[in-house]
């Protein structure tokens, strides 16, 4: 058994520092054994203090090297990663930054098993998927959902031009709200079906939930005004050119009524009323010439401003749909009518609280129209 104070000051300092920083509890225990031995404690006293056998204390008294903390690891801790060379790890980290398609594979994402198979072909070193997982964990890699991006499909020049035009519209609306209003238009759908992906259950036992899926969907079409976030939403059976025209006509009449309530004459709306810029996407039924002509003739105050392709981040109403779907997530509805009642309350009666500065999930970019 080592004598009291057999360690020099540098060794003691190194062990004390390792005791604070080491994450593995077993290694911290072995460091503590070396420090207590240096304090003159007997093996029996240390075993009683730590709560282990004297044989364990004796083993690490002989095999623990204060100058080499690696000596405190047992074979189990060393694992099977010794086969993985530095070159193997380098290739592994390069591979996970590439899409599988770039290397000729048809699958869409890397699993650790697929990585192990590919690296065996490249390096000749055979590891299991779990071994690859441990290597990645040590390198601080985690398995997370990827963020969707629309950038590869976007035309940056068109987006730049549109953004400048939109900023000009919003500036005019802010300075002269009686001359111009900017509305953001879109369609969406809300399903009666609820899929439970996760639920709480006791460890080791997977909880069973009902597997039936209820059919039913509520389709909505509407707009939101930029200045005061007023919403106009209509329920419809399906989205097409005819429904777009009909809802737009109701929307136009609603704005005329608002104009009249402010003390103006209905007959003066076309000449003296504010112009209405509607920002909307490039859905084919938004552009059918037959209905575009009718809109131009019957609703002359409306100007349709189409978004650049793949640019939902310029459409403010996307936040409304997203927030509403988030609110009703995991709720069970007995009927379509029950779902419609809640949606009407949320979308038309101001029951939905929206965080306007947040980012949209699966949309690629944050809405930037605020």
What is the average of the pLDDT values?
A: 85
CATH class of the largest domain: Alpha Beta
Helix content: 40-55%
Report the total helices: 14
Structural class: alpha/beta
Low-confidence stretches: none
Total number of strands: 5
Question: Helix and strand string, N-terminal first?
Answer: HHHHHHHHHEEEHHEHEHH
CATH topology of the largest domain: Nucleotidyltransferase, domain 5
Strand and helix layout:
Blueprint: H1 9-21, H2 25-38, H3 43-50, H4 54-63, H5 75-78, H6 86-95, H7 112-123, H8 129-138, H9 156-175, E1 180-191, E2 217-225, E3 231-236, H10 241-261, H11 269-272, E4 275-280, H12 289-298, E5 302-306, H13 317-328, H14 336-347
Parallel strand pairs: 1-4, 4-5
Antiparallel strand pairs: 1-2, 2-3
Q: Can you offer a commentary on this structure?
A:
This protein is 43% helix and 10% strand. The protein contains 14 helices and 5 strands. The chain has helices spanning 9-21, 25-38, 43-50, 54-63, 75-78, 86-95, 112-123, 129-138, 156-175, 241-261, 269-272, 289-298, 317-328, 336-347; strands at residues 180-191, 217-225, 231-236, 275-280, 302-306. The chain has a 5-stranded mixed beta sheet, sandwiched between helices. It is elongated and about 105 Å long. The termini are far apart.
Protein traits:
about 375 residues, alpha/beta, Nucleotidyltransferase, domain 5, 3 domains, five-stranded mixed sheet, elongated
Summarize the structure.
This protein has about 375 residues and is α/β, with parallel strands linked by helices.
């Amino acid at each position: 058994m080592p004598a009291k104070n057999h360690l020099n000051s540098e060794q003691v300092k190194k062990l004390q520092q390792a005791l604070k920083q080491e994450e593995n509890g077993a290694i911290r225990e072995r460091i503590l054994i070396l420090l207590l031995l240096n304090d003159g404690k007997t093996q029996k006293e240390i075993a009683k203090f730590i709560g282990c056998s004297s044989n364990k204390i004796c083993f690490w008294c002989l095999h623990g090297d204060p100058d080499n903390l690696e000596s405190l690891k047992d074979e189990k801790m060393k694992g099977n990663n010794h086969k993985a060379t530095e070159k193997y790890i380098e290739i592994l980290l390069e591979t996970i930054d590439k899409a599988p398609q770039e290397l000729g594979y048809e699958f869409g994402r890397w699993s650790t098993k697929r990585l192990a198979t590919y690296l065996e072909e490249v390096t000749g070193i055979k590891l299991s998927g779990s071994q690859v997982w441990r290597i990645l964990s040590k390198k601080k890699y985690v398995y997370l959902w990827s963020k969707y991006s629309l950038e590869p499909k976007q035309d940056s020049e068109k987006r730049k031009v549109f953004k400048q035009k939109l900023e000009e519209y919003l500036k005019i609306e802010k300075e002269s709200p009686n001359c111009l209003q900017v509305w953001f238009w879109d369609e969406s759908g809300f399903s009666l079906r609820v899929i439970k992906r996760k639920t709480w259950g006791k460890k080791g036992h997977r909880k069973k939930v009902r597997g039936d899926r209820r059919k039913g969907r509520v389709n909505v079409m509407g707009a939101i005004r930029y200045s005061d976030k007023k919403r106009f939403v209509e329920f419809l059976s399906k989205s097409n050119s005819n429904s777009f025209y009909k809802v737009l006509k109701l929307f136009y009449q609603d704005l005329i009524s608002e104009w009249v309530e402010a003390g103006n004459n209905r007959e003066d709306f076309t000449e003296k009323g504010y112009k209405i810029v509607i920002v909307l996407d490039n859905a084919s039924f938004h552009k059918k010439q037959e209905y575009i002509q009718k809109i131009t003739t019957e609703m002359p105050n409306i100007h349709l401003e189409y978004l650049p392709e793949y640019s939902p981040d310029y459409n403010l109403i996307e936040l409304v749909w997203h927030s509403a779907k988030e609110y009703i997530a995991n709720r069970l509805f007995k009927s379509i009518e029950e779902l419609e009642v809640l949606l009407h309350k949320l979308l038309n009666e101001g029951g939905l609280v929206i965080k306007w500065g947040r980012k949209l999930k699966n949309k690629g970019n944050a809405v930037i129209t605020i």
